[in-house]
């Protein structure tokens, strides 16, 4: 394909990996970070695609900075952040779409542990948008022999899969840290997916999307890998460390900690049952120990697996 000019916002682990993938495909890539040498204006100049790989806490602020700068009429925004806005419960793509109503917004999400991608190990991901041609262009820009990119027409489902699994990944870290075994982990991940689908449907996401790469796929990757920062939070809490100490030493962002708070608030407001999320929330708040959280989950009222 033709060379595309791409601005990557955020030079953390994920922004750097996405920049490498696009540059390896021969595109003109410029990277901006708040402490980097280039101005946002210079990085955005003539960009056909703007990729946001900023932690959730910076998305709203950066989107409003970009609003005041010149852009091409046809610029596509691609968001790769996996989080929820604490004030509004908006997803990152909703923030970008509200800030830029006349530009297409694409969500990029999948089982993509950045350290593996930096080692050139093979991986797959999903690009989703209500504007099919924008997703297809993004697919072309990032696809390679080591990065297989699928399109999907359910952006909210793809985005929520990547976001909500972070909370279950914390629980999976606890499960492994307490050495609860493979049966327990399988139960946790499967019931976690049920919980994700329950609240995802409330958001308007399609159930099938959660069975794909950005849902089940990412859940499997992060719940089974010590490379996941969210998994590390749970694993180290099971080992007796405090959340503050873990976050202080963690390389990069564990979005699940904030996402869990936002989710709990929403689940309570909407009366949606989210038992695993609730126990992760109580653990992070210091209200229960990892063992107490486990007992709470195991001793819930018995019930059918599904309410058909
Ligand atoms: N690392 C990974 O394996 C993957 C990460 N993600 C998601 O990508 C996002 C970024 O993750 P990482 O790159 O790993 O995190 P990171 O902590 O390595 O980098 C975060 C980036 O966001 C920027 N940032 C943070 N707050 C900001 C603010 N207030 N204003 C401007 N910039 C700000 C930082 O300067 C940095 O460039 C997260 O939402 C994460 O869930 C998604 C897929 C894979
Ligand atoms: O989202 C990720 C992999 O798909 C990265 O997971 P962590 O943020 O838990 O490291």
TrEMBL record:
Which branch of life, at top level? Answer: Bacteria
PANTHER family (alphabetical): GLYCEROL-3-PHOSPHATE DEHYDROGENASE, GLYCEROL-3-PHOSPHATE DEHYDROGENASE [NAD(+)] 2, CHLOROPLASTIC
PROSITE patterns per UniProt: NAD_G3PDH (PS00957)
Task: Describe the location of the Glycerol-3-phosphate dehydrogenase NAD-dependent C-terminal domain by residue ranges.
Answer: 154-294
- Residues bound to NAD(+) are 10-15, 229
Give the UniProt record's GO annotations in the biological process aspect. carbohydrate metabolic process; glycerol-3-phosphate biosynthetic process; glycerol-3-phosphate catabolic process; glycerophospholipid metabolic process; phospholipid biosynthetic process
> What are its E.C. numbers?
1.1.1.94
Give this protein's Gene Ontology molecular function annotations. Answer: glycerol-3-phosphate dehydrogenase [NAD(P)+] activity; NAD binding
The protein's name is Glycerol-3-phosphate dehydrogenase [NAD(P)+]
- Catalytic activity, per the record? sn-glycerol 3-phosphate + NADP(+) = dihydroxyacetone phosphate + NADPH + H(+); sn-glycerol 3-phosphate + NAD(+) = dihydroxyacetone phosphate + NADH + H(+)
């Amino acid at each position: 394909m033709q060379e595309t000019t791409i601005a990557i916002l955020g030079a953390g682990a994920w922004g750097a990996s996405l920049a490498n993938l696009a540059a390896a495909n021969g595109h003109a890539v410029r990277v901006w970070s708040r402490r980097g040498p280039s101005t946002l204006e210079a990085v955005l100049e003539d960009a056909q695609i703007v990729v946001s790989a900023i932690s959730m806490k910076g998305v709203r602020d950066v989107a409003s900075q970009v609003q005041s700068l010149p852009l091409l009429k046809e610029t596509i925004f691609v968001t790769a952040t996996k989080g929820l806005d604490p004030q509004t419960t908006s997803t990152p793509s909703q923030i970008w779409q509200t800030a830029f109503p006349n530009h297409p917004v694409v969500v990029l999400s999948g089982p993509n542990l950045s350290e593996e991608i930096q080692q050139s190990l093979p991986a797959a991901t999903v690009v989703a948008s209500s504007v099919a041609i924008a997703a297809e262009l993004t697919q072309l820009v990032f696809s390679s022999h080591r990065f297989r990119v699928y399109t999907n027409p359910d952006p909210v489902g793809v985005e929520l899969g990547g976001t909500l699994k972070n909370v279950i990944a914390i629980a999976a870290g606890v499960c492994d840290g307490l050495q609860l075994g493979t049966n327990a982990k399988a139960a946790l991940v499967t019931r976690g997916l049920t919980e994700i689908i329950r609240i995802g449907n409330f958001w308007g996401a399609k159930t099938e999307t959660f069975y794909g790469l950005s849902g089940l796929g990412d859940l499997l990757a992060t719940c089974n890998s010590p490379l996941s920062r969210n998994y590390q939070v749970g694993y180290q809490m099971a080992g007796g460390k405090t959340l503050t100490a873990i976050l202080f030493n963690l390389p990069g962002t564990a979005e699940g900690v904030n996402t869990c708070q936002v989710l709990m608030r929403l689940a309570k407001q909407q009366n949606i049952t989210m038992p695993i999320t609730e126990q992760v929330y109580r653990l992070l708040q210091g209200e229960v120990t990892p063992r107490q959280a486990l007992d709470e989950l195991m001793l819930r009222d018995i019930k059918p697996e599904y309410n058909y």
